[in-house]
Specification:
- The protein is of the alpha+beta class.
- It has helices at residues 54-68, 91-96, 119-130, 138-168, 174-197, 208-221, 238-248, 251-256, 278-281, 284-287, and strands spanning 46-50, 76-80, 104-107, 114-117.
- The chain has a four-stranded mixed β-sheet with strand order 2-1-3-4, covered by helices on one side.
- Helix 1 (54-68) links the parallel strand 1 and strand 2 (76-80).
- The protein is globular and about 60 Å long.
- Bound molecules: glutathione.
Amino acid sequence: MNMPPDYTPPKVWTWNKASGGRFANINRPIAGPTHEKELPVGRHPMQLYSLGTPNGVKVTVMLEELLALGHAGAEYDAWLIRISEGEQFSSGFVEVNPNSKIPALLDRSGPKPIRVFESGAILVYLAEKFGAFLPTEPAARAETLSWLFWQMGSAPFLGGGFGHFYAYAPMKIEYAIDRYAMEVKRQMDVLDRRLAESEYIAGPDYTIADMAIWPWYGNLAKGLAYEAGEFLSVQDYKNVQRWTDQIAARPAARRGRMVNRVQGDPASQLRERHDASDFETKTQDKIAPTT
Ligand SMILES: N[C@@H](CCC(=O)N[C@@H](CS)C(=O)NCC(=O)O)C(=O)O
C-alpha cells in the first residue's frame, strides 16, 4: 500500500488555515455568522435558501412534486446561496439554519414564520403539512422513515468520505480511498438488493425516501458524482440503474434538479425560482446566453 507522509498528531489540535483541498476556504472549526446580512424574502408561502447540490435537490424535487399534485401552498421562492462564497455564514442564513448548510426553509404561511433545516427534516415537514409522499399506515411509514434516515446517515460516507478523498483532498491517500470506496459499494449493494424486491425504496409507492436517496445515489449510479462511475463499476447495480431512470423521467424531478443549479448545461440551470413559468423563461441559456 502507498503510505502517506508520516504525521504525529500534536497534543492539542490547532487550526491550520492552509490545510488545502477544494472547499478549504469555507471550512472552519467554529460556527456562527461571519457577517451581517438579511435574507431576501419573496411573495410565496415557502422561502427556500439553497443550492442545486444533492441535498438541495431533495427539497426542490419535493416542492415540485407537491405543486404537481395541486398543493398551491407549496408555491416557493428558491433563493441561491453560494456556499463557495460563504453566503451560508450570513447572519440571516444562520437565523434559519444555525448549522450554516443548505438547504434551509422558512414557512411563512402562518402567523409566525417556521424555520426548518436539515433536508430530511424539511422533507418530513412538507410531507406532513401537505399529507403526501409519507404513508400514514404504520408499517409503510416506518419503512419510509427508515430509508430516509438511512440516507441521512449514509451520504456523509459517500460525500464527506469517498468524494472528499477520491476527488477533493490535496493528496490521494490509498487507505482513505479504499476504506470509503468499500463502504460506498456496500451502500450501493444495499440499495440494489432492496430495489430488486421493491419498485420504490420504501415499497410500491414513491415517497420522500426516494427523493432523499435519488439525488445522491442516482447521480453516483450515472457517473455524475466525483467522476467515479468507472472506478466504482456503477453499471453493475442494475436495480439502482432502473430506479434512477424511473425517477429521472418524472417531470417534477426534472424540474427540481434544475433549481438553484449553477453548473452544467446553461439550459439546465434555473439559478433562482420565483414562479412556475421561470422554467420556460429564466434558465441561464435564456437570461445570459453568452456566459
Ligand atoms: N445533513 C445536511 C447536510 C447539508 C450539507 O452538507 N450542505 C452542504 C452542501 S450539499 C453545505 O451547505 N455546505 C456548506 C458548508 O459546509 O459550509 C442536510 O441533509 O441538510
